[in-house]
Each structure stands twice: as structure tokens, then as C-alpha cells.
Amino acid sequence: MHPGARLRALCDRGVVMIPGAFNALVARAVRAAGFDACYISGGATANVAGYPDIGLITLTEMCRTIREIADACGLPVVVDADTGYGEIECCVRTVVEYSRAGAAALHLEDQVFPKRCGHLDGKELVPTDAMVEKIRAMAAHRSDPSFVIIARTDARHVSGFDDAVARADAYRRAGADAIFPEGLESEQEFERFAKASPGLLLANMTEFGKTPDITADRFGELGYRLVIYPLSMMRVAMGEVVRGLRTLRRDGSVRSLLERMQSRAELYELLGYKPGEAWHFSER
């Protein structure tokens, strides 16, 4: 079954929680924790490469990340495609290459390049017609109709809530399977959007942004089936890295951190590796 078909089947059953994985090892941990799908954030991919989230990661770099993560976890993978890496021809190549790399779905946003994090101010939008043309071309050129195309609109904080709804409707008509309204600020806004633009919807539960903390179950009640957590695990990990480095610098040892570390045995278990026994690629 195509991973997009598996993702659609999950949505039919209820809310799908989709934690972000910023490398293949984290993706294995996502699967081991019992999640049914994982997410690849363009921002996280850029951050771990040392870049801010302004669209500097290339299609080739992103596809390598998709292959590693999809192979490692075997779960349906939803992937950030930013603005499609260019105009229509580039967007067509994106949907083809993402599918070949093993993605189940992508989301494309209607910002002007260079894009900004969806929870920052000062964004600019492309005209609705330009985004519609991209979506229509991507829908027509996906190699499998099960591949899920998600259209993200950042209009809420640029041209207003009503324009976000109007754009969502236009994007659905162009062939988008789901809509991702970015930067909504309350449960009431999420509910209002779901009623104004019925259909498959994705919610972005990111920290330190415009959206308050809302549980997955509550998102389900509000009308959302896909809930991504793009940077949560990266933020947890980097918080520990920074604190750990401070401790090492201060104490000259990491002895006090041992209880918070993943042990060697736990790492090997996550990798499916037993020392002294042959490890095969299929173990991924």
C-alpha cells in the first residue's frame, strides 16, 4: 500500500498525531513510542544543518532526509515542501521526487520566497491564482493518486481570516487533499475555520508561537485529523544538549548527567542491533 493510502486510512480512523523527526534515529524512536506517522519539518532540517528557516534547504537535501527517515521508521511521512523550491516546474519536480523518496504527503505554502516561519510576523503571500496553479500542477503530476497534497495558507496574519478561508476553498478546488491553516490563535479560530472550510484539515501544534497549547483530542473535536509537532523533539533534545555542555564545561565530567542519558543498551535496542550478530539493512 502506498504510504499516502496508509495515511488516509489513519485519518479515517481518527486524529493522527505526527511528531517531527529531525533524523533517522529520532524517526525510529517515533515508531518505538507507538506513533503511526512522523513529520519532517523544513525548519528543523534547516536548523540541524545550521541554517534558519528561510528556505535555504534544497530539494536534494530534503529528499535525502526523507529517504533516511522513511526507511528508518517505515511509517507514513508527512513532509514540509516550503514554497515548492521555485515556480510550477519546480513544484512538479518536488511532488515527483518526494514520492520517489518515500513520502506519504507534502504541504506547500503560499508565502513569497524567501519564506518565514509561519509564526513570525512580516510574511508576504503570493497571489491566490499563483498558488492554485502550483497545486493544480502538483495534483496532476503525482505518480500515485494516494499521495496527499496539503495546501498551507499563511493568510491569517497577512490578509486576514476571511482570506485564509477563501484561499483554502480555492486550493481545495485546485486539487489539494487537505488544508493547513497556519498561525491560528485560539480554539475558537480553529473551530471557526473548520466550519468555514470543511474537509481534511491539518493543525500545527508548535511551541512558542501564535497557537496556544491544544491537545490532540481537542483538535479532533474541533474538526482536525492531522496534528503535527514539528520542532518539539528537536527543542527537547537541544535543551538537553545545551544544559549538558554547560555541565561538562563547569564540572569537567558528565557524571551527573548519566541518569538522563540514553544508555548504550537502549540505543542498541532502538537500532535493532545485537553486538556479535550480523545487522542487516532490513533491520531498519
Query: CA-to-CA gap between the ends?
Result: 19 Å
Annotated CATH topology of the largest domain: TIM Barrel
Radius of gyration: 19 Å
Mean pLDDT: 94
Q: Secondary-structure element sequence?
A: HEHEHHEHEHEHEHEHEHH
Number of strands: 8
Uncertain stretches: none
CATH superfamily of the largest domain: Phosphoenolpyruvate-binding domains
Task: Please identify the structural class as seen in this structure.
Answer: alpha/beta
Query: How do the strands of the widest beta sheet line up side by side?
Result: 2-3-4-5-6
Overview of this protein structure:
The two termini are 19 Å apart. The chain folds into two domains: 235 residues, Phosphoenolpyruvate-binding domains (TIM Barrel); 34 residues, no CATH class. Helix 7 links the parallel strand 5 and strand 6. The chain is built from eleven helices and eight strands. Strands 2-3-4-5-6 form a five-stranded parallel sheet. The protein has a three-stranded parallel sheet with strand order 1-8-7, with no helix packed on it. With 284 residues, it is of the alpha/beta class. The longest helix has 20 residues.
Keywords:
45% helix, five-stranded parallel sheet, 284 residues, TIM Barrel, three-stranded parallel sheet, 8 strands, alpha/beta
SSE order and pairing:
Layout (H helix, E strand, L loop, with lengths): L2 H11 L2 E4 L4 H9 L5 E3 L1 H7 L10 H15 L3 E4 L7 H14 L3 E5 L18 H14 L6 E6 L7 H14 L3 E4 L5 H10 L5 E3 L11 H7 L3 E4 L2 H20 L12 H8 L13
Parallel strand pairs: 1-8, 2-3, 3-4, 4-5, 5-6, 7-8
Helix pairs in contact: 2-4, 4-5, 5-6, 6-7
